[in-house]
Amino acid sequence: MRIKLGRFTVALLGMVGGAALATEPLVFNTEDYPPFNYERPSGRVSGISTEILREAAERAEVDATFRMQPWARSYAMAQRQAGHCVYSTSRTDEREDAFTWVGPLADNDWAVFARPDADIQINDLEDLHDYRVGGFRDDATTQYLESRGIDVATVSRDSVNARLLSVGRIDLWATGGRVAPWLAEREGAGEVEALHVFRQVDLYLACHPDTPAATLEALQEALDEMRADGAMQSIRDDYG
Predict the structure, then answer these.
(1) pTM of the prediction?
(2) Distance between CA 95 and CA 172 in Å, rounded?
(3) For 2-47, how does the pLDDT look when each residue is reduced to its tens digit (9 = 90+)?
């Protein structure tokens, strides 16, 4: 039997001894954004948000596939197709009505970074107008700066900005506070220095609004349970 609840379709399947939720497998689309989500050399998608979601899906008995691809593609899939979600997604006012949200998974500072030898001082966002700022396409950090009149040179993957900064193609790199050091080290781009933190946001799983509501509610309940019993913090601690 299928029942319609607003924009959500819930599927119920009667079983002997009770009723259980019958759902289609979900697809959790993500990008290379360590330490929250990234791909290990083995090909396994990992990271703070990934491992939290993997355990939540197991607890909720939700079949989920994790898929790594460029951010713009992952984001577009969650916008266009029921059963598709994208993470780690900054929950902003501009995005609020576009998705059903599950989380939070983690928090994230938005900051601008420079090379340690750069003679640059940033006190507020207005100072960014004097420099070449790098970001990545369809990222909330980039969109936030652009909405405030700041020109941002965008690439498809944030890891490219680590290399652009190291060779002087950009002066500043706008990204997550924990992300830049990870990517710079991995890409062999040398050290980076945070000059100015300009916002803090929570990171979520963002799902197409027609994804079955009961499935997402089960995931949310599992996350709440993990937060209460310490499992979520334990995963975060594993990444320092």
Answers:
(1) 0.86
(2) 26
(3) 333 333 333 333 333 333 344 679 999 999 999 999 999 999 999 9
